[in-house]
Each structure stands twice: as C-alpha cells, then as structure tokens.
Specification:
The model has no long low-confidence stretch (mean pLDDT about 95). About 40% of the residues lie in helices and about 25% in strands. Helix 6 (about 195-200) runs antiparallel to helix 7 (about 235-264). It has two domains: about 30-40 and about 50-75 and about 155-264, Rossmann fold (3-Layer(aba) Sandwich); about 85-150, no CATH class. It is globular. The chain has helices at about 45-50, 95-105, 110-120, 135-150, 165-185, 195-200, 235-264, and strands at about 1-10, 15-30, 35, 60-65, 65-70, 80, 155-160, 185-190, 205-210, 215-220. By secondary structure, it is of the alpha/beta class. It binds adenosine-5'-triphosphate (ATP) and magnesium ion.
Length: about 260
Amino acid sequence: MIEVSHIAKIYHSDTRETYAIGDASFTVAKGEFVSIVGPSGCGKSTLLNMVASFMAPSSGTISVNGHRVVPGQIPKGLGYIFQKDTVLPWFTVARNIGLGLKFRGVPEPEIQGKVDRLLAMAGLKDCHDMFPHHLSGGMRQRVALLMTLACDPDILLLDEPFGALDSNTKMVLHKELLDIWQQLGQTIMMVTHDLDEAVTLSDRVIVLSAPPSRVVLDHRVDIARPRDVFSLRQSREFSDHVREIWGVLGREFKQVGKEALEHA
Ligand SMILES: Nc1ncnc2c1ncn2[C@@H]1O[C@H](COP(=O)(O)OP(=O)(O)OP(=O)(O)O)[C@@H](O)[C@H]1O
Ligand SMILES: [Mg+2]
C-alpha cells in the first residue's frame, strides 16, 4: 500500500543544510499497522509529510496504492493526524468533525448523521455542541481522530497522536484505535516516541537511525490479536519485543545525545 524507496531529504536554508533523511526504504502492506520510531530530528514527521505529498523528497520515490506520490497531490483515501493539535477552537465538536465532509460538498443532513454516529462510537455524544477548550486532552485527541475518520480514509498517517497524554488516557485511546482499526481495516503508519505504544499497537516497528537517518531495524511484533492493551504490558512476550527493539533504538538515542554534547 505504501512503498518508500531510497528516500533522502535535505533541507536547504540561507545559512545551513540539514541532512534529515539519508536513505530510507520500507513498505507497508494493505491493512498493516506499522510504527516508525527514532530519535528526535531523524525525519519522522518529514517522512509522513512526503507520503502525504506535502513536500518532495530530495531523492528516491514514494508510491501509495501503486501510484507514485506527486508533490501537492494528496493520495486518494489518505487521512492525517498531525503532531500538533488540529481541532479548530472556534467550531463546536460536531462542526469540527464534519468539516472535511463539508469541504467535499456532502449534504448537511448526511454530515449530521455521520457525525452523530462517530460521536456515539467514541462515547462523545454529550460533547456534540461543546467547544474544544471545554474538552480534556484525551477528548480533544478523540475529536481529532474522528475528524479524520469522518472522510473514511483507507490509509491513516498518525504523527504522535497520543504524545501529550498521560499513560492511562493513552491506553484507553489505544484500545479505541485498535477497535476502530480491527473494524475498518485501514493501513496505518504511525510515528511515536513511545516504544511501549508502538509494540502494543503495531504489526511492525521500524527504527530510524540518528540523522541523516536510515532504517536500522524492521521488527515484526508477532503478538496475537485481538490484544488486550491493559494486560499486554505485563506479559513476557511484550517485554521481550520492547527489549529487542530498545537494543537498537537506545544506541541511536545515545548517538544523538553524544553529538549534542559535542556541539554544546
Ligand atoms: N521546513 C523545514 N526547514 C528546515 N529544516 C527542517 C524543516 N522541517 C524539519 N526540518 C529539520 O529536519 C530534521 C527532521 O525534522 P522532523 O520534524 O522530520 O523530525 P522528527 O523525527 O519528526 O522529530 P521529532 O521527533 O522531534 O518530532 C530536523 O533537524 C528539523 O530541524
Ligand atoms: Mg516529528
């Protein structure tokens, strides 16, 4: 479904060149849940932005559903949840969720029906007319997810969707995301800083190195599904997967830390 082939990305500015991605290649199969982890600044958000066509790679190619991604032409059926909160503060929850459908010219009664169904699914029926600043962080994040799901994406790109939440709220949202994914079968590419989260949710975890990054590990998480996100963390197999990935990821964090100290 997603094919990233020998991607490199260098950012040029007046004063410097930033070598974000060196040479990254991997694929994500249809219906697969793949997480990308790696040190801060290794180009994880950049990678998602290139898959979404928001920017061009310096070299290499990306294909989505068999079509080469052309900068500025968002691949069909793609939904994106950004690293920063994208819920609009001046609209109610219901209007936020219906926004994408409105842009597409979907008739209002149809939008209303869909928004109501989504709110019921996420247990947010009572929030229909509330404004985002009245919601908790977890609720806002649910609304952001519903905004994206409203347009029925086949592919979901998630950039640290639960990054700002406490670990209990995160786990509840993990369960909700897995339930939705199991029901609808989207292809998911998720960036996260949280290795426990990556192992809990994913079929595969891809580790990027310190920049200019490359893929240093492509690890299959063969834990049976459906997974109980709450008890999973106590299991031996869960900690075995985390340890194995951390063996590689930890080295990359260390490398970035060492370079930061050398430049201080
Ligand atoms: N528009 C831009 N112009 C110049 N440099 C950029 C731009 N966007 C990102 N960079 C640089 O490219 C590198 C990769 O950035 P990116 O945001 O993709 O990293 P990341 O892996 O998502 O980091 P984090 O984990 O902190 O979110 C960083 O060094 C960043 O400063
Ligand atoms: Mg990022």
